């Protein structure tokens, strides 16, 4: 029994290609004949779906198909001349190019398109789907249906489905047309919209159905656009969150206004540049330079923060306006020092391969991977910050000192050391923000200045001293900014956000998440 | 809170300062005259020195305005550069209108940049700027209104201290972004330049420059007397009280909002006037004037001179800018270090400024 | 009965994030009355002062002075109505002289332009001299308030209240941190001031309250616990429990 089955399978396997080969060779011969024969042969080859037909037809279309006096067909390519039927190398002596007319050309174009749809090469299939979509002919429907059934790559499937819907739209049969309309209604692209509008003019009979399809299509487009805006907003918001988190610690928790905060972000970005330069040329290390830069940036900026706090800020506690001016001066010095050390021009930080490219989410939503990483990174840093404040001994001492310095001191906490560590911690977070910013912005000495005002806005908006407020503040400011952008333009959106924020502070002077308790009232 | 106020009893230092101030003003007044001397004369002063001094006088007016708000009422504005720039833009619009058909495109009404951007009509907010009194009025009015709105919103909700500073910085930052845009109708990032004349006098003529110099000097002296009058009135004492113990002032029945608003609006208008005098002298205005760095640099002039002293503010404007001119010619890379160092040194070591240093040595 | 110059609190509650600083407090102070308010820490004494002077808005309840609804007015308006307040921690303007402090407090138009035009008349000067005499600060007229002693600062602040010529005076712990001699002087000063004005004194020091010799209100947990002459209040078992029993 098994043996018999095996034989049958073997026979089938042997006979199928043999059969196809016969059809291929049969049709191939027709290409050497008259124009009518050539056109018929091209159509048969196209319908046959044999992968070997494609190079032959292309050669004919390009005038590279040669014919020996004995009607053997040869293909001339850059690599040499081969026999069309077998693919074996051949001699072109005595052969002449096969001539074609316009009728043959039309037949060839269709056949090549059909064959490419089932080509083993994915890029070729995608290009073919695109081409078929553009020609839009009802004749392609069966072909597309067949190709769609075999296709496994989702992106190409979508393209083919769109091409199929477009082809159905121009079919003679109203039922088929309705299928096309239904498919386009869910496509959610501007192209589908244009097709439907065109079909509406061409076939007034289907007007109501097309209108209904347009309504649902517009809904899909709107949802998609909203999702894209949301993603961009979250992406901007996560950058703001990173820049503002450190500030939420130094300004929000400690009450120290540090105008050099942006420069700590900048230091973090330059630490990334240095780490990357150090890793260059060590192949196994190179892809990991970015993760390595995170602790480096934290340490560099944190150390700078500790030095600033111990050396200068400490002497100005209780004098916020002086602190503001002094730290602004420090920021200037840091900027100029980096400008002299690294040059004023932008430095590029190359994203490792695992961070590059775009990711396609279900529904055709495209997201750039490095921005996704920044979002993830900012949330991780937020989580770690909260954990450090809530669950570590250092966090406990920090909260004790900020709530009641005198009592903390009497309980044996060295308040000076805690101040320095807290400030270093906040500055270190700024440094980590610099690592993330190096992925989406130019690394230049004045990198930080663009973020400092926004960061203060986030902290004030969210409520000074509240990390949850900083999160909500950053994300909502980011989203609002991106929501306004299409209507007002990037710059005016920013201006509008600033003005809106000032009005918001009128209603809630203590931000979204005010500190609780009698002391705050 | 460290308090720096002028004691009402005239001391020897005070008299000395007064004499020195008068001497300096007379010397300044002589400068355009000495400029007219032949170039090989021993007392000749070059065009460069006269024009840069004219600029510094405008800066000193701005410094007085900042001192009035910060030194007396405790309002540390990091956005005074915006008022200065708005005043400059107002007069710049007037100067642009006066170019008339002499522009590159030769359009009788529209400035070159508008022709280039394809405008066919003058935007409404440019109407009237062909009149000098109107432009001068706007140079005071626009900063005043902006300060009034921002101040009202901030003071009403009791935004004080660094929060107020940050808001004013955001204000000038937002304006900078807005003015960089071409479609705002203010010449985009190129701003205004290539001015020809003012009040019928060609701008590049020596006489016009001397006239602008004297106008600035007179404004500086006038502003000083205005500020001195205010700070010595009971309002000046209310402002000091607001600076040191705001809520106590409220319980005495004074409206802190009104007092702050008065001084902030007045200070903004003075800054606008300073900008209006500045632009014809330097011959250009662009959105860079709005950059937050400019405003904070002006604050440091006041801190260096000694805030709450008026004279000190003007002194600081002159001395810091003199240092800037000197350093940027001999070692441009060092200037930002020096400026940054100045911020640190003044706040940590010299909280009462140069004038405080003088006083401290005497007493 | 006339409501003019009468302080009237009814059912006043102040809630800070769930914490009831004042809980349904009712209190009436008649014109010309001097009232001492005592109570342990956190009883709501300072919050009560804040509500009357407009620093804190009550969550619910009525606060009236004469016919005016104080919950709708800000600090400056309430001060101009004739309600003066002396803070627990003496707050005078350090950068101004004693004379200038008193001049600022003097009843006069308060607008910025009026202040700009203000000229010190002989009448005003006489009034300031008189108050300096009363508070014993004449010799220090030209000194900055920053260099006064603690007691002198308290008196300067009381002097500023006198300059305001208020109908109602709120005095928060006037003798905290004073020497016995200073305390005595302060009590005399307050009694002298009282006269035709209403005075509300918040104090911890029971001896001082006894020295004033007037009606006493005891606050506890934001509400009134007891009211009456000092001896009656001191024997009230609820008061004893609050002060001693915890």
TrEMBL record, chain A:
Q: SMART domains given for it?
A: EZ_HEAT
List the Pfam families: BPD_transp_2
Tell me where the signal peptide lies.
Answer: 1-20
Give the CDD domains listed for this entry: TM_PBP1_LivH_like
- Localisation per UniProt entry: Cell membrane
Q: Which domain of life is it from?
A: Bacteria
Q: How does it sit in the membrane?
A: Multi-pass membrane protein
Give the transmembrane region(s): 234-257, 289-308, 320-338, 372-396, 417-436, 456-480, 487-505
**Alphabetically ordered keywords of this record:** Amino-acid transport, Cell membrane, Membrane, Signal, Transmembrane, Transmembrane helix, Transport
Name the protein family: Belongs to the binding-protein-dependent transport system permease family. LivHM subfamily.
The name of this protein is: Urea ABC transporter permease subunit UrtB
Native source species: Plastoroseomonas hellenica
UniProtKB/TrEMBL annotation, chain B:
| Compartment annotation | Cell membrane
Identify the InterPro entries for this entry.
Answer: ABC_transp_permease (IPR001851), ABC_transptr_urea_perm_UrtC (IPR017778), LivM-like (IPR043428)
Q: What is its main location?
A: membrane
Spell out where the chain crosses the membrane: 15-34, 46-66, 72-92, 104-128, 134-155, 162-180, 211-230, 251-278, 298-322, 334-358
Membrane protein topology class: Multi-pass membrane protein
Domain of life of the source: Bacteria
**Which key words are in the record?**
Cell membrane, Membrane, Transmembrane, Transmembrane helix
Keyword Signal set for record: no
Q: Which Pfam families match?
A: BPD_transp_2
- Do you know which NCBIfam families this protein is assigned to? urea_trans_UrtC
Protein name as annotated: Urea ABC transporter permease subunit UrtC
- From which source organism is this entry? Plastoroseomonas hellenica
UniProtKB/TrEMBL annotation, chain C:
Sorted alphabetically, which keywords does the UniProt record give? ATP-binding, Nucleotide-binding, Transport
Provide a Gene Ontology MF annotation, just one. Answer: ATP binding
Q: Which gene encodes it?
A: urtD
The UniProt entry, under PROSITE patterns, shows:
ABC_TRANSPORTER_2
Annotated source species = Plastoroseomonas hellenica
Protein name stated in the entry: Urea ABC transporter ATP-binding protein UrtD
Query: Residue limits of the ABC transporter domain?
Result: 7-246
Keyword Transport listed: yes
